[in-house]
């Protein structure tokens, strides 16, 4: 899986009139604990996205793109999944929010369109 981004100082963004970041993911890890052992699906992913911009995450089938998106959205529900790191959306760490607050964001401020509904 590859995440392509350009590193830019935030103070420069504000001076040039570009929008501040809306999403910042830092050192995100997601593991599944299976009877055969731990499967590390996402390992140390970090990126940021400015408001009004697009970001493409590309990779081969099975490389972790969907698990990454589901981890940020906290849709990896289940007792055998562990996610660590941080995912700040509009200044709030999504991984630290109580599930009740996260549910309020789903469909109003955050949404995910699945390839196979």
Can you describe this structure?
With 117 residues, this protein is α+β, with helices and mostly antiparallel strands. The protein has one domain (14-105): 3-Layer(aba) Sandwich (Rossmann fold), CATH 3.40.50.300. 19% of the residues lie in helices and 37% in strands. It is built from three helices and six strands; from the N terminus they run βαβββαββα. The chain has a four-stranded antiparallel sheet with strand order 3-2-5-6. A two-stranded antiparallel ribbon has the order 1-4. A hairpin with a 2-residue loop joins β2 (21-34) and β3 (37-50). The radius of gyration is 15 Å and the shape is globular. The relative contact order is 0.20.
Q: How does CATH name the architecture?
A: 3-Layer(aba) Sandwich
Largest sheet: 4 strands, antiparallel
What's the CATH first level? Alpha Beta
- Give the number of helices: 3
- Measured as a percent range, the helix fraction is 10-25%
Question: What's the short version?
Answer:
Helix content is 19%, strand content 37%. It is α+β, with helices and mostly antiparallel strands.
What descriptive keywords fit this protein?
single chain, globular, alpha+beta, four-stranded antiparallel sheet, 117 residues
What order do the helices and strands come in, and which of them pair?
Elements: E1 2-3, H1 10-15, E2 21-34, E3 37-50, E4 57-58, H2 65-73, E5 81-89, E6 92-93, H3 99-105
Antiparallel strand pairs: 1-4, 2-3, 2-5, 5-6
